[in-house]
Amino acid sequence: xxxxxxxxxxxxxxxxxxxxxxxxxxxxxxxxxxxxxxxxxxxxxxxxxxxxxxxxxxxxxxxxxxxxxxxxxxxxxxxxxxxxxxxxxxxxxxxxxxxxxxxxxxxxxxxxxxxxxxxxxxxxxxxxxxxxxxxxxxxxxxxxxxxxxxxxxxxxxxxxxxxxxxxxxxxxxxxxxxxxxxxxxxxxxxxxxxxxxxxxxxxxxxxxxxx
Length: 211
Prior knowledge:
With 211 residues, the protein is an all-alpha fold. The chain has helices at residues 15-25, 29-37, 52-58, 62-71, 85-92, 95-103, 119-124, 128-137, 151-157, 163-174, 189-196, 199-207. It is 50% helix and 0% strand.
């Protein structure tokens, strides 16, 4: 039995499995189909606990990821750093793959190594359409990660205050995000926005009742 809960087997992958993961990493969809036809395991893991799907997602190989997902690869299978195809697609703003994972059983409550949902890094990195998609899918907009930050706080604290992050703040507030949910030090989103001189975001927060 594996000692890595939820990470699958820690045994070395077979040559066929290694070839499958390598093909997925290269975006070789035909090679992936061929490998599976020859007996490779769809959710075999490499030394970093990546499945073939995870390897495809890391390189944004949409066609390969689609083929693996439609065949039944686990969109929630986590690697050694607690990323999954779903979480990584959300964090990197790989919208086509994200939508595929959402349509095939993505666990909206799953969290990354920082204890954050897919929504939090998407908000931080300014992926507007990804944030919109995750909100519409039903991800908790007020989830707090291990740093004590919500998606709203990360969009302000780690964002650049520009149009993309302002739109994300707007989307989060429209979705019911708590405008007054402070960080661990008691600093509110409005205070963070003011400290950084983000006037547009400050106005959005004030209009939403932030203090």
